[in-house]
Write a structure and sequence with these properties.
The chain has 153 residues and is mostly helical. It contains 5 helices and no strands. The chain is globular.
Amino acid sequence: MKGKMKNLFDKPAFDEIVERINKLSPGSQRQWGKMNVDQMLAHCVISLQAASGEKYFPPRLIGKLIGRFLKFTIMKERPVPKNSPTNPAFVITETAGFEKEKERLLQLVNNFHTGGEAKCTTNPHSFFCKLTPVQWGTLMYKHLDHHLKQFGV
């Protein structure tokens, strides 16, 4: 029997993510992809801003066409594939620096967790379209897990 999907609203998953973020350093090296650690932190900040409704990125055409079908694949108990495509709005070139981005990410992870399902956005995801709060929480955990693994933590 498979275990319950990890979800950023759940305390053990939240604690795990915070602990792993805190293991990052300015010298953390990527194991795949193109981002440096500062860019990864800023990229994760934007995704949590979208999940909380602080920022809105409308669904893109490709998402409207296939996103709702792929949503069920991403919600399964397997990691996000390396080098998965990214919405161009989430590609980071400028950052505020490691410490500032890490602080912003930890604050947003905390706000998302403590706000719970009730404070989760009702906006559609830019690729997967309509998501329930539980799906948002699962997706945010999986997204953070993916990028933390990318940097070896």
